[in-house]
Amino acid sequence: MRGHLELITGPMYSGKTDRLLDAVETFGRGNVAFIKPHLDTRHAPRLLVSHGGRFAAARPVMGLDRLLDVAGRSPVIAIDELQFFDEAVVTQLQALRAHGRRIVAAGLDLDFMRRPFGVVPRVAEIADSHTRLRAVCDRCGRPADFTQRLAGGRPASPGDSVVKIGGSTVYKARCGDCYEHVGAAVLV
User: Fold this and answer.
1) Which residues contact 89 (CB under 8 A, 6 or more apart)?
2) pLDDT tens-digit profile of 4-49?
3) Could you give the number of structural domains in the chain?
4) Does residue 118 form part of some domain?
5) Cβ neighbours of residue 36 under 8 Å, at least 6 residues apart?
6) Does residue 100 sit in helix, strand or coil?
7) 142/88 same-domain check
8) Active-site residue set
9) Which residues are CB-contacts of 125 (< 8 A; sequence separation ≥ 6)?
10) What is the pLDDT of residue 67?
11) pLDDT per residue over 137-174, tens digit each?
12) Where are the beta strands (DSSP E) in 50-184?
């Protein structure tokens, strides 16, 4: 029996983690392996937490070689912050799906410079379904498709590291008009 791979993407504050929790709620938490990357240090190491305050007990994973071990025999696997996993996740997800597992994965599809983020575009290519969410622009209130990183209250430099863990003091949801371009040209 073939499983199912559902992908949820969008900018920060779009409700990706809440949607992930909603998608697996009907299966009962005892049937779901909640997985997050060890890089996500915003909350307790063994909690998957949404900006809305919802949470689930999760296993932090360092390397994808452990993904199959952590998933165990759970029929449903929920993976948050997909963008922090490396290319090997694609093969792992395909193997889990081939063995009849239902996988729901959520992550940022674009980085703070509006470039494709990590492995998420590759997972989008193999996903059975893909939902892209929108946030609310923190400046004007219109639908926001982008995440703006701030450094000292100003847009971060294009030369900054792509990975920087942070919350509302570092990242803001922005619409296309309010997003501030800095330095290099942006791919759209």
Assistant:
1) 64, 67, 82, 119, 123
2) 999 999 999 999 999 999 888 888 767 888 888 756 656 556 666 6
3) 2
4) yes
5) 48, 58, 59, 60, 61, 79, 80, 81
6) coil
7) no
8) 81
9) none
10) 72
11) 999 999 999 999 998 888 877 777 777 666 666 899 99
12) 55-57, 59-61, 76-79, 102-107, 129-132, 135-136, 143-144, 146-151, 154-155, 171-174
Q: Looking at residue 168, which CATH number applies to its domain?
A: 3.30.60.20
Among candidate residues 37, 31, 188, 45, the one with its CA nearest the CA of residue 105: 37
Do 104 and 14 lie in one domain? The reply is yes
Question: Residue 107: exposed, middle, or buried by beta-carbon count in 10 A (0-12, 13-18, 19+)?
Answer: buried
Domain around 26: 4-134
**Residue 98 CB coordination number (10 Å):** 11
The 3-state DSSP class for residue 57 equals strand
The b/e string for 38-55 (b: 16+ C-beta within 10 A; e otherwise) is eebeeeeeeebbbbeeee
Rounded CA gap, 127 and 123, in Å?
Answer: 6
Whether residue 61 lies inside any domain: the answer is yes
